[in-house]
Fold this sequence. Notes:
CATH architecture of the largest domain: 2-Layer Sandwich
CATH class of the largest domain: Alpha Beta
Mean pLDDT: 89
Radius of gyration: 19 Å
Number of strands: 12
Amino acid sequence: MEIYLSIDDTDNLESCGTGELASQISENIQQQGWGECSYITRHQLFIHPDIPYTSHNSSMCFHAQIEDSALGQVINYASDFLARVSAVGSDPGLCVALPAKLCCVPELIDFGQQAKRIVLTKAQAYELAVRSGVHLSQHGGTGQGVIGAIAGIGLRMGGEDGRLKGKIAFDTDPSDNGIAVTKVLDHPWVAAVQTEQGQLLQGDERICLVDKVKIVQVKKQPVLLVQRNEQGGWQNLTRQQLKKY
């Protein structure tokens, strides 16, 4: 069974972040033998005075293949986990979606896009959850995190938003002329190397890696985005350039 699981608003300024809790949920799903989980994507939501958030207002989402019989266990575990470990003052929300049983997928994707631009409400989130058939629940505080949780599902399923949690590292020699595309593609987190305009790099081309190397979701794939540098070669986009993802 294919599922998406998203959480939001679980932390405060002193606690570990929402991304770390998403990692722990993902790891436990695998440790319990319930299924296999993908990479985690971070989805930046709207920054506005009317929206309470800790530091960045971002939700976390991952995709998983689980045993059909494990769905209830996954939801119960994630619910109990968020209620137990979310930080004091947080407003955690959980959303779990089964793509095979979803209605209104375009509405889910649109809700995610709206959550990046405008202020949305809990009522809107729950109304969409009922129409679309996702599990949506709150686990402390005001439960405001349900908005970001369901938005994270929409953004991940839309396939054109999200930075992968964490960074990737490659063994490169500073004296050489970068790393070959083939070596980058050997990494399980990278399905393609391309420009923002969609130009794919070939295996023998080389990339100069700068800043922290971050992977983003493009066309539902994890992609390393690159651009021409001042020397006419290729380099990856910086974290600042990737903020829109």
